[in-house]
Amino acid sequence: MKTRLRQFAGAAFLLVLTGCSSPTVEVGNLKVIPLPQEVFQPMTEKPFVINARTVVYCQPDNEVLVRTAHFVVSYVKELTGIEMEVVDECPSSNVISLSVSENAKGKEAYRMDVAENRVLIEGGSEVGVFYGVQTLYKALPIVKGTEKVAALPAGLIDDAPRFPYRGFMIDVGRHYFPVSYLKEMIDLMAMHNINYFHWHLTEDQGWRIEIKKYPKLTEIGSVRDSTLIDPVTREYDGIPHSGFYTQDEAREIVRYAAERFITVIPEIDMPGHMMAALASYPELGCTGGPYTIPGRFGVHKEVLCAGNPETLQFAKDVLEEIMEIFPSPYIHIGGDECPKKRWRECPKCQAKIRELGIKETPEHTKENQLQTYFMGEVEKFVNEHGRQILGWDEILEGGLTPNATVVSWRGTEGGIAAARQHHPVIMAPIQYLYFSNPRWNKIPGVNSVKRVYCFEPVPAELTPDEQKYVIGVQGCLWTEWTKDSLKMENQLLPRMAALSEIQWTEPDKKDFESFKNRLPAMLEKYTVRGYHYREDIHDTTIVELPVDSVLYHD
Ligand code: ACM
Ligand code: ZN
Question: Of ligand 1's atoms, which has the minimum distance to the CA of residue 434?
Answer without folding.
Answer: 2
